[in-house]
Amino acid sequence: MKKTKKNNRLTDKKRTAVAAYLFISPFFILFAIFGLFPMLFSFYLSFFRWDGLDPMTFNGLNNFRFIFSDPIFYSSIKNTFLIGLLGTLPQILVSMVIAFALNSTLIRFRNVFRTLIFLPYITSIVAVAIIFGLVFNNQPFGFANYILSLFDVGPIRWGAEYWPVKFAIATMVFWRWVGYNTIIFLAGMQSIPRELYEAAKIDGATIMQQLRLITLPMLKPIVMFVVFTATIGSLQLFTEPLIFLGRGFREEGITVVAYLWRDAFVYNTFGTASAAAIVLFVIIISLTALNLGISSLIGRTKKSKVS
Amino acid sequence: MSKFLKLTAFMVLAILLLAACNGGGNDNNDSANDSANDPETTEESFGDGEIELVFWEFGNTGYDVLIEEYVAQNPHISINLQNADMNDVHDNLFTSISAGSGAPDIAMVEEAQIERYRNAEDAFHNLFDLGAADVEDNFLDWVFQNGGNADGTFQFGLPTDIGPTVMFYRTDVFEEAGFDSSPEAVNELVNTWEDYEAVAREIYEETGKLMTDAGELVFNARRDQATQQYFNEDDELIIDDHPQIREAYDYVANLFDEGLVGDIPLWTPEWFAGMEEGTYATMLAPAWMQGQIKDNSPEEGIWSITTMPEGAGNWGGSYLTVPSESEHAEEAYNFIEWLTAPEQQLEAFLNYGLFPSSPQVYDMPEFMDYEDEYFGGIATAQVFSEAAQSVIPVYKGRLYYPVDEELKEAIDNMSAGSDPDEEWDAAVSRIERILQR
Amino acid sequence: MSTREVGEGKFSIKKFFVYVVLVGGSLVSLFPFYYMFIMATRLNREINSVPPPFTPGTNLVENFQKVTDNIDFFGAMWNSLFVSASITFGTLFLCSLAGYAFAKLEFKGKNIFFGLILVTMMVPPQLGLIPQYYIITELNWLNDFRAIIVPGLINAFGIFWMRQYINEGVPYEIVEAAKIDGCSNFRIYWNVVVPMILPAFATLGIIVFMHVWNDFLWPLVVLRDPAVHTLQVALRALNDSRQMDYGMIMSGTFWATVPLIFVFLMFNRLFIQSLSEGAVK
After folding, report:
1. Exposure winner among A105, A268, B103, C86, fewest CB in 10 A?
2. Which candidate from C221, C236, C269 shows the least CB-CB separation from B3?
3. Same structural domain, B49 and B106
4. Mutate which of C38, C39, C44, C45 to test chain B, going by most B C-beta atoms within 10 A?
5. Nearest CB to B98; choose among C72, C130, C224
6. Which positions carry the signal peptide feature in this UniProt record (chain B) (predicted)?
7. Does residue B57 sit in the same domain as residue B179?
8. In a domain, B126, yes or no
9. pTM of the full predicted structure?
10. Fold of A70-306
């Protein structure tokens, strides 16, 4: 009797594992077909010179040597981080606050607000380009420059100066993705049981206390999720600089992905583009490892504090 | 939960729709034929001949009308015309050639983009092998040569239209400054670049208005008059080895320095708005710009046209190529030879304003008599054709446009007050890094 | 008691502040969308004037007529609807299935597999264009919706999201209980897990649907024949080589975005409804 039970449990375990492999296999099969080959191809290309049309020629490590000697490549890394910090950090904080407000039962018209906040994610990129072109216009009549002129600040060339370019692009990033992250936070907050808040209210907790003591701790996995995806997203930033600066970009505003895209599709030098892609990949992986290391460290100290 | 069921139902509906789509796939030709009567749809299949030619084009060419004529005369041919955004056509062509599959039988390639394929002779049929030498004389020399390789042994495409540059000017601003505003008088007044600068100064003193909207266009105008530009025929960078490009650059630097030209980026709303506002006197631009000017500044008789100082340039225009993937190269070639013949070019000009690349057209009476009330009733076609004939053939090179882009960045920076010499050096070192890749 | 009253007073100021933030944020979010509508009602010349117009004009109908004269707008809309719906439902299914496996099932190499999924998110996708296109031509899927739908089902983000939500939202005890009742793993997924994660479905569904609907980079490359164009690809054909008619382009773009608002509202209702159902439990 006991034996059969044990056997059952074993086959159960096996069956579960088979089911699990089956459940995750579609992703890996599809990725092997459509994702792996392009990845390996890029890796291969990084050791070659190729213009996309003529036969490839072996180039050793010269592509890497070239990008590491190119000041614009370093600028692109720096820009990516600066724009990422400027655009992503405030965005996560603000979307959390908005999500908290939208989650509160005391707010009316929640659906209207939710829809409006989400609108930037679906607004056509052409319209966005025109609007931001009007706001961050180099000319004195541009909207941002007009506002600044009221404070006696001279017209700024938003499309060309070091910090203004980054600020303008970061604003676009902020604008386009706040609603998106708000929706994700909202889903996370909704999974927190209402009773917790009601209990806290009975105990006389203020909104800030509720946020600090209930929402944030319960939301930690979602916050980590958003930080993780937003970090990767900001390291792969491309669309916003492209629509704001055009295909040529500029050293002041080029990001790493913009750099490699320009190499590939404007200069048609796929070798250096692939080399830059690999460097970016390494940067992202190491940052994520660092990120995971830090957060598991924090997690451990917190747990030890609790216990 | 019921909502979820509804969503599932929606999905099932969508899948049924797919089945319907796939089923309908084979009837494609019939349905497309119905729409052939409507000249504005983006895709049309013409004729039901057994040889189908896929033709990628961009812009508003009006070729559908001509194609109908062609398939009526050649019943064994049918043509599938696919119109798309200009950049998309080029990007798709590049991807297809690069991956070795999916290119059309005929691809329209813009003049600037054809440079990209300079070293990729494998990707296209050599039109000389198909008979292009016989029609070479149909086209202006420089246009035809730009569609071939450096030593003239390989022809990528047959030219369709071109974009000869002229000087558009505002008669009201010239009059305000006390000048005679007739095309003849302005032509005489602004005969050299020195004149252009002097007139700029006078107009500024008299009216406070600028000579032109964008320094970039002045640079383009002078660049296009240079006999050597960025590269020699061995694709070596030569901008520092001959003075012409540097002179064009310094000329613009000087105009900025004196505050005589504007720095409004092209294609922005404020740039278009400037066409109507009359805050500047001239615009150095190609023939096809007249559409934008008319659209943004509808009042007749304000704008007029004359030739540019010291010659002309070309901006825009396209070639029809036959990618080597095409299995019907001969039929494709016969079609493009017909489509680019003088008679068809005249029709394309009269109906859609495509400026002909064939000098034979310039002598045709319908062309010579073409007058435009908008520009004060002058024979605009003649002004443009005069410009077209004075363009100098010049070798551009595969990386011409990336190089040009870097110089434009330098010009943009100096319009904001940076030192022109420093900007030049910075641009040259950026360009050298592009070439090293 | 007194502290509570102070708290209440502060509370309404905060409430006011919250409304200010929300209204302000909504206006900033709305403006480009509103301007898209303005452009759709105006002539090109009016759009290009300085200062630009901020009130609707009179060309709404004419602009849209120009759009339908130039492209098969409604045909393309059906194509978009089909592609977006297929990818959305396919993604929801595959991602929740994989997410369930990662969250609740034990198997060898789980962490490694999950790590691999995260790693795939880190590869910048822009360079894959030419090799991916090559695969599509080898499969003979040019001008075929499968070229969009099948690669579109790869969604590392979705798996990550679903795992996270199932981890948090589905108590282990319920899964165990179902197992003891003798349910197969798929039945547990279908009958127990799926009903509990409808809010996560709604969220992911919104994001995926909107993304696919608006994507044009990849469809542009593989859908060349206008008969299979999705809306975003078809709209690109409205661009002339030099002369952009923004009134017409924005009209097309605006009407192409409007269905998304309905889809959003639909998912949003699913989201709220599933939550209140959860609350009843």
Report:
1. A105
2. C269
3. yes
4. C45
5. C130
6. 1-19
7. no
8. yes
9. 0.88
10. MetI-like fold (1.10.3720)
Would strands B106-110 and B51-58 be described as parallel, antiparallel, or unpaired?
Answer: parallel
Terminal alpha carbon distance of chain C: 34
Three-state DSSP at A223 gives: helix
Question: Which two structure tokens, joined as six digits, stand for B145?
Answer: 């040569």
Residue type, B218: V
Residue C49 has pLDDT above 90, yes or no: no
d(CA A110, CA B294): 48
| pLDDT one-digit tens code per residue, B265-299 | 888 888 888 899 889 999 999 999 988 899 889 99
pLDDT value at residue B151: 86
Mean pLDDT for chain B? 88
Diameter over CA atoms, chain C: 76
Task: Find tokens 């089956």 and name the residue.
Answer: A22
How far apart CA A293 and CA A224 sit, in angstroms, is 12
Q: Determine, for residues B41 and C71 on separate chains, whether the beta-carbon distance falls below 8 Å.
A: yes
Examine the pLDDT at B3 and tell me if it is beyond 50: no
Q: Name the one residue in this structure whose structure tokens are 């039970």.
A: A5
Are the Cβ atoms of A27 and C107 closer than 8 angstroms? no
Encode pLDDT of B211-237 as tens digits: 998 999 999 999 999 999 999 988 899
A248 contacts in B (CB within 8 Å)?
405-406, 408-409
Judge if B428 and B345 occupy the same domain. Answer: no
Which residues numbered 62-81 in A keep a CB inside 8 Å of some CB on B? 66, 70, 72
**B56 plus B150 within the same structural domain:** yes
Contact residues, B window 29-58, toward A, CB-based 8 Å cutoff: none
CA atoms within 13 A on the CB side of B223: 23
Cβ contacts of C87 within 8 Å, gap of 6 or more:
C148, C149, C152, C153, C208, C209, C212
- Backbone dihedral region for residue B352 (phi beyond 0: left; psi -120 to 50: alpha; all else: beta): alpha
- % of chain A exceeding 70 in pLDDT: 93
Per CATH, is C71-237 categorized as 3.40.50.2300?
A: no
With CB atoms and an 8 Å threshold, state whether C236 touches B84: yes
Query: What number of residues does chain A have?
Result: 307
Chain C contacts in chain A segment 158-187 (CB below 8 A) = 175, 178-180, 183-184, 186-187
Touching check for B270 and chain A: CB below 8 Å?
Answer: yes
